[in-house]
Every structure is written in C-alpha cells, then in structure tokens.
Design a protein that fits this description.
This is Propionyl-CoA carboxylase beta chain. This protein has helices at 2-16, 21-29, 35-42, 102-118, 137-153, 173-176, 195-202, 208-212, 214-220, 231-244, 283-290, 335-350, 368-372, 375-388, 403-408, 432-439, 447-461, 465-469, 482-492; strands at 49-51, 74-81, 84-91, 122-126, 159-163, 166-168, 180-184, 189-191, 226-228, 297-299, 307-314, 317-324, 355-361, 393-402, 418-421, 426-428, 475-476. The chain is of the alpha/beta class. It is elongated and about 95 Å long. The longest helix has 17 residues, at 102-118. The chain has three domains: 2-244, Alpha-Beta Complex (2-enoyl-CoA Hydratase, Chain A, domain 1), CATH 3.90.226.10; 267-425 and 464-492, Alpha-Beta Complex (2-enoyl-CoA Hydratase, Chain A, domain 1), CATH 3.90.226.10; 431-462, no CATH class. Strands 10, 11, 12, 13, 14, 15, 16 and 17 form an eight-stranded mixed β-sheet that branches. It starts with a helix and ends in an 18-residue tail after the last helix. It is built from 19 helices and 17 strands. Strand 12 (317-324), helix 12 (335-350) and strand 13 form a beta-alpha-beta unit. The protein binds hexanoyl-coenzyme A (HXC). Hexanoyl-coenzyme A is lined by residues 23, 96-97, 99, 129-133, 140, 143, 166, 168-171.
Length: 510
Amino acid sequence: MKDILQELEDRRAEARMGGGQARVDAQHAKGKLTARERVELLLDEGSFEEFDMFVAHRCTDFGMEKERPYSDGVVTGWGTINGRLVYVFSQDFTVLGGSVSETHAKKICKIMDMAVQNGAPVIGINDSGGARIQEGVDSLAGYGEVFQRNITASGVVPQISVIMGPCAGGAVYSPAMTDFIFMVKDSSYMFVTGPDVVKTVTNEQVTAEELGGATTHTRKSSVADGAFENDVEALAEVRRLVDFLPSSNREKPPVRPFFDDPGRIEDSLDTLIPDNPNMPYDMKELILKVADEGDFYEIQEEFAKNMITGFIRIEGQTVGVVANQPMVLAGCLDIDSSRKAARFVRFCDCFEIPLLTLVDVPGFLPGVTQEYNGVIKHGAKLLFAYGEATVPKVTVITRKAYGGAYVVMSSKHLRGDFNYAWPTSEIAVMGAKGATEIIHRADRGNAEALAAHAKDYEDRFASPFVAAERGFVDEVIMPQSTRKRVARAFASLRGKKAQMPWKKHDNIPL
Ligand code: HXC
C-alpha cells in the first residue's frame, strides 16, 4: 500500500516539475513565474484544486510519443479568491512552450464548462507558443473548441485573460473574446502575425514589443484593459478586480462590508467647477469623492483618456462608473471614447452592475478623420449600449451636456432612473457662441450684437433649469451632497426590474 501511495506522490512531483529545472530557471531568468507559481499567487492560499494533472498528449508524429509530459503544458483547476469560487487555467511555457495540443485544449474546455455550469468566473493565464506545431489541425480544432466556449460563456460568467508571455496567431482570439485582458510590461505580447511576417508582407520593420507589447495594446489598440509591472502585481490586481464582480449573471455583485458614511458631505465639490467654463478640472476627483473609501478600479486607464471607466463601491455595492474627463480633449465623445465606454456599459449590464454616469461633455469631436473612420457608427454604440441597459442608471451632469452627447450620456430619454444636475450645468443643443452665430446670421460682423445674443442664449439655456422644468433632470443637487444623493438613488433602485421585449439578440452597430 505504501508503495502505491508513494507512486502517486512521485507522479505528482514529476508533474509539478513542469518542463524540468533548466526550463524553470530560464522562465525565472526572464522575470516570469511558472504556471503553478502564478496559480498559487492568484488564488487564496491552499485553495487550489487541480484537475487533469496526469493528462498527456496522444500525438505520435515527429517522435512525440517519446515526450509525453504530465499536464500537457497547462495547469487547470479551481480555487477561491477571497473565499469566492473561480476556475483557472495557466499555460506552462516550460512544457513544450505552453503550446496548445488537442488534450491541452480539452483541459481548458473542461474547466470552462464547469465554470458555466456552476456560475463562477474563468481566469486564463496565457503564456504559449501557440498551436502545437507537431499536432497540426488537431491543435486548431482544440482552439476552435475553446473559442466556442468563450462565446457561449460571454455574459454568463466573467472571463478574464492575463497575458504573461507570448500570445500570437489565432491564439489571440480567445483572450479577445473575454471580458478583460491584462498584460505584463516587457514580458508579454499579442499579435495576429509576428514581426517577421509583417516585414515580409508589408515591409514594415517593428519589434515584437512595438507590435504587440503592453504599451501598444493599452495605449494604441485598446486590446488590453490594463498593464502591470510584473507577474505578482498583475495577479494581485486580478484578485482586486474579481472582488468587484458577480460570480455569474445569475447573481448580484458581492456586497462588501463598508465603513464609509454614505451620507458623507464633500464641501470641496462645491468649488470643483472652475469659474471659467472653458477651464478643465479633474473628473477623477469627483469619482474618488463619491466612492466608498476612495477606492476606484480603473479599466483602460491609458486609452481614450477623455472618457473614464471603472468600478467603485457605494454602500459596499459595486457600481460601474462612466465619466467624461474635461482634462483631455475637453471630455468630448469621439470614436475611441465611445467604443471604450460602450463596451464597459455592456459588461455592466450583462452582469447586473448598476451604472453611474458623470457628464461634462461639449459634444462629439468634429473632423474629417472622425467622420472617415465612422464616428457615426462608433458613437451609436454608446447610445445603443445605454439605451438597452436595464440596470439601475444614475446620472449626474456637472457642467456641459450639449447636443447629441447629452442624449447619449445616460440621459432621461434613454431610461435613466435618476438624472441629477449640479447648478453649474449647461444643458443645450450647443454652446452659446456657436448657437448665436447660426441663429443670428444677419448680425455676422456685428460683435456687439452677437455678444448680446450670446449672453441672452446663455441666460436662457446655459443652466440646468430649462431641462429641470421639463423633468429631463429629476433634481438639481448641491455638488457637496453628490455621494449622499447617488447612494440613496442606488439604494432605492435595488429592486428595479426592467426588460426589453423578447428578441433573439439585438443588432448593435458594430
Ligand atoms: C511546439 C513549441 C511551440 C509550438 C514553442 N515550442 N512554440 N513547440 N509548438 N508552437 C517549444 C520550443 O520548441 C522549445 O522547446 C520551447 O517550446 C521553448 O521555445 P523557445 O523557442 O526556445 O522559446 P523562446 O525563444 O522564448 O521563443 C518563444 C516563441 C517561439 C517566440 C513563442 O518558441 C516561437 O516562435 N514559437 C513558434 C510560434 C508559432 O509559430 N506558433 C504557431 C502559431 S499559429 P524546447 O524543447 O527547446 O524547450 C497559431 C495558430 C492558432 O498559434 C490558431 C488558432 C485558431
């Protein structure tokens, strides 16, 4: 009996060695942790339960039958993050370069199926040379099975991808279909075709880092939602994110104990808006002052900075925040900011996360580039996303809310539940100067008359009261009381039930 038990231990030890000490050392030398070390850091201590440790591939081509390492290049299983169930897979670059074989893919599919069935997030740690070259189409089939599961699980359980090494070729499309992608600076990259192919086909010379590193994907392409300095920081931040999220679409987000008075008054907000309406101010200050304990988890911080998206808690409950940032491009809507916010709004709506929208928007960014690149369709994404969202929606207009952008930003007309405005709000079709130049064309050249008309326009429209008279703004509130009003609004909406008519699915302008 002792021998039998010992054999199990020996086999386990062999599996845990991955591709052997030399390859583990090489992994460490690159500043990367091993697949199992990553899982240990991601999950609560001692909570990891492994599946399929002894799975080995069945390939017999190219002499592969001689090398059949346990686990087949991916560690899979489940555990907890702050006590809540999650499923995880972590590719092991030390075993055949973490390449994806038929059996490797089957292991991933198994835990994805369990995650959907049991209603818990899937976290995928990617570090792989891609399709296992020796297996050919079996490997591609394996990827295809994973892709299908990403799609089936979308909107059912949160899916998070952490890129911690190479992720190239069609392999990038599994992370691309998950809800969030995080990368590690200088040690991870994602691209459909690598620098060599790019050079051959387009004659562009580019390094792997430039083509698909963390900076590229967080600042330029917006493929990634965040980038971290190293593996340890990335995994700690994933734990922090999971704390904000519900386990599945069958559950509400977790409510954390809170020690911050929801009725807290912030006098400093009364002077947040500068006297000069063209001066910027930092919208993040308002977000932090509304949030429990000033805790804000920002998504896509480095991309389209004219729009801020992320999670806070109010009375311990997760709230998704979408806010215009007057410090960047005056907080206007454009292609990038609309896409960024639309995807975030849709994530929140899938998972019953209430939405807080903070508005200071001068309108859509004009320009040939914007029009040629389809600002109409991309702007419509955000409009559509807000209009279809049935979660509790609370909106606060702090200053400008002009034109189409006013309607888009979770207005009353898109079924906003509580639409508040600060007394400093200006809600109108456009700014006074532009408006008077159009409606008083006859006075063009007469500066004095135009100034008088602009003043008249401002007096009549540059305030929240015209909208408030019509009930488009539910209440004009003191800036200092924003947290209190917003907290009470969300508390009153906890039982909200709203539905769209039955349809197979909508046809959001993609
Ligand atoms: C089998 C692979 C492999 C692969 C790496 N290895 N990629 N084995 N299939 N795809 C093995 C190597 O042979 C090596 O084995 C070990 O993993 C480590 O690889 P190195 O090359 O030594 O590591 P490094 O120098 O860090 O380079 C990493 C790399 C490179 C850039 C990822 O290995 C590479 O270019 N690999 C091939 C990438 C590729 O073309 N993949 C197919 C893409 S197509 P030993 O025994 O020496 O340690 C694809 C399609 C997906 O993925 C489609 C989905 C629909």
